[in-house]
Write a structure and sequence with these properties.
With about 150 residues, this protein is an alpha+beta fold. About 40% of the residues lie in helices and about 10% in strands. It has a three-stranded antiparallel β-sheet, covered by helices on one side. The N terminus is likely disordered. It binds zinc ion (2 copies). One of its GO terms (molecular function) is zinc ion binding.
């Protein structure tokens, strides 16, 4: 069933984190470009969490699924697999009754070596915020001056 392969994001987000929080990764700017930075992906994303979710759904080659050790049925979420084992087979709700397997991600889209955005440290985010605030202030000042200048000619 298709909906059983809804991914366990907490698990699969680790795949994005494998990219380590290196400074080489660009910082996701909340007021900046909201498109996925993978070439030709063009997916619009409104916040960093959605971006990470998108990345872990689309730009990772393999995903983790959870199989029942009794009947080998597979689930996208660890919780669902444990629930199944306990309800159907009367097993304990624990990791010993499920098997973690890596399968190919059928939604996979190559990332062409793109480094995913990172959230940035609070300090980095603050400095981006300050910079954008200053920019907006400058723009307002400029506009005000333009209007005043324009009035001056009347
Ligand atoms: Zn993308
Ligand atoms: Zn089973």
């Amino acid at each position: 069933m298709a909906d059983e392969f809804v991914m366990d994001l907490e698990e699969n987000e680790k795949d994005v984190i494998k990219f380590k929080n290196t400074k080489l990764r660009p910082i996701w700017e909340p007021m900046g470009n909201k498109e996925c930075n993978v070439p030709c992906c063009n997916v619009q994303l409104s916040n960093f969490d959605k971006y990470i979710k998108h990345w872990s759904e689309v730009h990772v080659e393999t995903i983790t699924v959870y199989a029942c050790i009794v009947c080998t049925e597979r689930f996208g979420k660890r919780e669902r697999a444990m629930q199944h084992a306990s309800v159907v087979h009367r097993k304990e709700r624990d990791d010993n009754n499920i098997k973690i397997i890596e399968v190919n991600n059928y939604k996979y889209k190559n990332d062409y070596g793109t480094l995913p955005y990172r959230k940035g440290s609070p300090l980095e985010r603050k400095s981006i915020y300050e910079r954008e605030k200053k920019k907006a202030q400058e723009e307002r000042k400029l506009l005000k001056r333009k209007i005043e200048k324009h009035r001056g000619f009347n």
